[in-house]
Recover the amino acids of this structure.
């Protein structure tokens, strides 16, 4: 069985500060991990993925994520948050099908 | 190259009616996935289809829900005798053959927002 957890329902950050959105996983076999972002009333947009290789993955809009096998984590990060980053973020693992975490609402205030 | 196209964007149905949601995958993609997003909840997998085949329907409710992906035309998610609890956003995603890890990850449509009144 596989599962993905996002322990925080909401993350609040001031504009210009670094942001972290947490994700942990539990999978049998190799994890294939993804981050997606959803803006209000829109579909999901792909941000980045980890399949193999470097543990630090760089993606769209200045986001990056670090794969940590020992901690079974894949936290999403950005050095300097923008108000326009405010959205719903989903972590997911692909094992035949994408299984999503419950989502984290990111709010960036000016 | 158009992305994943879902229609309608918004659908209103009265209780007891049928809802038909359509999804046209990206060109060259032969795998389609349906997800449901209930208010204040995450995305829940419903069904995975290839052309003319249901591969995994483990997330589909046992009654009233069905899905198909015919040889020609879009994939259809059909909900019979809708109830208020069916109100949700339904997202379709497509991918090329997933056997190659480089192909992992889906392209999502903008969703169909179903409201049952």
């Amino acid at each position: 069985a596989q599962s993905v957890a996002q322990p925080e329902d909401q993350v609040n950050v001031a504009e210009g500060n670094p942001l972290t959105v947490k994700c942990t996983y539990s999978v049998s076999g190799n994890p294939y991990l993804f981050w997606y972002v959803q803006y209000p009333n829109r579909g999901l947009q792909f941000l980045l993925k980890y399949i193999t290789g470097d543990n630090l993955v760089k993606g769209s809009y200045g986001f990056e994520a670090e794969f940590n096998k020992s901690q079974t984590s894949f936290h999403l990060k950005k050095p300097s948050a923008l108000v326009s980053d405010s959205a719903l973020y989903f972590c997911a693992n692909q094992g035949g099908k994408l299984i999503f975490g419950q989502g984290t609402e990111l709010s960036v205030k000016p | 190259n158009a992305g994943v196209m879902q229609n309608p964007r918004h659908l209103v149905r009265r209780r007891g009616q049928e809802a038909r949601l359509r999804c046209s995958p990206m060109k060259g993609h032969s795998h389609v996935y349906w997800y449901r997003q209930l208010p204040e909840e995450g995305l829940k997998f419903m069904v995975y289809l290839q052309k003319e085949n249901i591969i995994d329907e483990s997330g589909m409710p046992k009654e009233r829900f069905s899905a198909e992906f015919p040889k020609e035309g879009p994939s259809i998610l059909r909900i019979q005798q809708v109830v208020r609890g069916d109100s949700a956003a339904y997202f379709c995603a497509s991918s090329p053959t997933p056997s190659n890890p480089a192909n992992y990850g889906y392209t999502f449509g903008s969703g169909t927002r179903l409201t049952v009144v």
Summary: The first strand of chain A starts at residue 3 and ends at 5. The mean pLDDT of chain A is 93. The interface with chain B takes residues 32, 34, 36, 41-46, 49, 51-52, 90, 94, 96-103 of chain A (CB under 8 Å). Chain A is about 0% helix and 55% strand.
